[in-house]
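Figure 6 in text form: structure in, sequence out.
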């Protein structure tokens, strides 16, 4: 039987989603829990490969189990074997063709950024504490430049940039309430460090170190050297993944 799970995690202690030769990936913990309930290794595929330290509110994982489980029982069993910073929020049977990564229509990330001279301790590690003052009108206008299909090679970790770095961004905007701002970006797929570098370039625009024309030039395929910093990971969340309307995992869910 094929299953999908909606997974949330605090990424602080992990080297990203993917199983690693050095360090611990969230995938390893999920697969360890699957081994504990099934007694054999089970491969888990995720919708997005989050960076080290990046969190997830709505990661989607798919896997195949040799025996049939009631989804509510599977959820309880997996959470029993998972550490407290990882949780399965929902589990469901899905059609045999379902693959969390390959069939995702879009992924949405949200970057929580705190501006101010003091950071409330309760949100430490959950936001990017940015002590700079931004021109938010300019940042809001800059966000819209990301929308559409662009060559994002300037927004990718150089050593991991693919031959075809074109990606399509469906929505890109920023909201501000008091000291907190939230940068939301939704796209068909993302490159390594892409959202963090997008946020780094907004940081440059907000401080007046880069104008919108320079940002537009970066989106035409300039190299990484002229791009902004890679923002720290702790404020970034894989927020949600879409497979279309209908059941929890799109038209692939089995009631």
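Output sequence:
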């Amino acid at each position: 039987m094929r299953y999908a799970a909606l997974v949330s995690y605090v990424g602080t202690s992990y080297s990203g989603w993917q199983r690693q030769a050095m360090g611990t990936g969230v995938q390893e913990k999920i697969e360890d829990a699957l081994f504990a309930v099934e007694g054999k290794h089970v491969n888990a595929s995720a919708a997005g490969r989050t960076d080290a330290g990046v969190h997830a509110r709505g990661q989607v994982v798919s896997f195949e189990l040799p025996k049939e489980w009631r989804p509510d029982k599977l959820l309880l069993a997996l959470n029993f074997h998972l550490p407290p910073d990882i949780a399965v929020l929902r589990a469901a049977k899905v059609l045999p063709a379902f693959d969390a990564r390959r069939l995702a229509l879009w992924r949405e990330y949200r970057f929580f950024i705190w501006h101010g001279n003091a950071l409330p301790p309760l949100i430490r590690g959950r936001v990017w504490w940015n002590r700079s003052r931004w021109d938010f009108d300019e940042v809001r206008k800059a966000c819209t430049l990301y929308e559409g299909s662009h060559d994002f090679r300037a927004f990718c970790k150089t050593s991991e940039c693919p031959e075809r770095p074109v990606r399509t961004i469906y929505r890109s905007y920023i909201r501000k309430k008091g000291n907190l701002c939230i940068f939301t970006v939704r796209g068909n797929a993302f490159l390594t460090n892409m959202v963090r570098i997008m946020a780094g370039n907004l940081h440059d625009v907000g401080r007046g170190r880069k104008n919108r024309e320079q940002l537009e030039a970066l989106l035409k395929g300039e190299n990484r050297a002229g791009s902004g910093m890679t923002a720290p990971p702790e404020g970034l969340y894989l927020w949600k993944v879409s497979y279309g309307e209908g059941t929890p995992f799109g038209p692939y869910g089995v009631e």
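Caption detail: The longest helix spans residues 26-38.
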